[in-house]
């Protein structure tokens, strides 16, 4: 079977659904990270508080509380990195033995497709999970860099390098959080991509649901309203 024959196993609706899923993934990330200033996302609002945290940290003599927070952030990224590693292993095992998956999918959709089709569908999920793993690993490393920068901030607020070093730590913290959030979004879309097993229409529906969930949490959630109110009270 040539690659042309293999591609022909997927309908135009299948290819369109996959394209829209990937496009939604890219656009969602772009809009969340580059939202207009008059309507910031939760991620952008939290970036402001992360920088403010580093400024406050530079003014403290005892920074045990800051170290505990950094440890918690690193534990969170390590947990998700470990979880995605397990998921990657499970998906690879499933790709190596698609008979069970094909049987379940055939019972649900009454569609008996070649093993290659099921393998490709699982590889789409694998791509999202792998991307999430890489993002979590990088985020974990950046949070480690940030912890080292925090430890290097002088305890003397009058030291000329104190606030400069603290703001550098803040920017590294924001970058780490960005990778962490990208990893979480990849997990969201990986879960949505599983719907392709049932067909292109369920995949389109899952894509719409995933985008709506992410959009609500970033732009319409109660937590965002509280953050906006806090920033407004300072101005």
Rg: 22 Å
Low-confidence stretches: none
- Please give the alpha-carbon distance between the first and last residues: 66 Å
The overall pLDDT, averaged over residues, is 90
User: How many H/I helical runs?
Assistant: 9
Query: Strand share of the residues?
Result: under 5%
H/E topology pattern: HHHHHHHHH
Helix content: over 70%
How would you name the oligomeric state of the polypeptide chains in this document? Answer: single chain
Q: What's the total count of β strands? A: 0
Which term fits the overall shape?
Answer: elongated
Structural class: mainly alpha
Provide the number of structural domains. 1
Q: Main sheet, how many strands, which sense, barrel?
A: none
Tell me what you see in this structure.
The protein is mainly alpha-helical. The chain has one domain (11-234). Helix content is 82%, strand content 0%. Helix 3 (42-59) runs antiparallel to helix 7 (162-193) and helix 4 (64-96) runs antiparallel to helix 6 (115-152). The N and C termini lie far apart (66 Å). The mean pLDDT is 90.
Give a brief rundown of this model.
This protein has 235 residues and is mainly alpha-helical.
């Amino acid at each position: 079977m040539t690659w042309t024959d293999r591609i022909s196993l997927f309908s135009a609706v299948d290819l369109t659904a996959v394209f829209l899923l990937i496009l939604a993934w890219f656009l969602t990330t772009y809009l969340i990270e580059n939202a207009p200033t008059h309507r910031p996302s939760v991620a952008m609002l939290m970036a402001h508080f992360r920088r403010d945290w580093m400024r406050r940290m530079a003014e403290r003599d005892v920074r045990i509380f800051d170290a505990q927070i950094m440890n918690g952030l690193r534990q969170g990224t390590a947990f998700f990195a470990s979880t995605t590693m397990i998921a990657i292993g499970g998906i690879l095992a499933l790709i190596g033995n698609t008979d069970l998956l094909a049987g379940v999918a055939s019972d649900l959709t009454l569609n008996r497709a070649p093993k290659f089709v099921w393998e490709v569908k699982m590889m789409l999920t694998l791509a999202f999970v792998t991307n999430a793993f890489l993002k979590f690993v990088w985020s974990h490393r950046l949070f480690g860099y940030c912890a080292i920068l925090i430890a290097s901030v002088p305890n003397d607020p009058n030291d000329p390098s104190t606030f400069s070093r603290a703001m550098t730590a803040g920017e590294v913290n924001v970058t780490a959080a960005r990778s962490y959030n990208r990893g979480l979004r990849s997990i969201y879309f990986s879960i949505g991509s599983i719907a392709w097993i049932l067909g292109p229409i369920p995949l389109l529906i899952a894509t719409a649901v995933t985008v709506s969930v992410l959009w609500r949490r970033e732009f319409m959630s109660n937590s965002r309203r509280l953050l906006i109110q806090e920033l407004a009270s300072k101005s």
